[in-house]
Design a protein that fits this description.
mainly alpha; 1 helix; Fumarate reductase/succinate dehydrogenase flavoprotein-like C-terminal domain-containing protein
Length: 41
């Protein structure tokens, strides 16, 4: 299979999207846990 710049760019874009999803999920989880913490206090 021949690699060209476009295939590599697609792979890189998908990797960045995966990282963005992980960061977003972590941020949401953290926000919810901070929110619960404030409610408890």
């Amino acid at each position: 299979m021949q690699k060209n710049g476009r295939d590599e760019m697609l792979i890189e874009t998908k990797n960045l999207a995966d990282v963005a999803i992980i960061i977003t999920k972590a941020a949401i989880a953290r926000k919810e846990s901070i929110g619960c913490h404030f409610i408890e206090n």
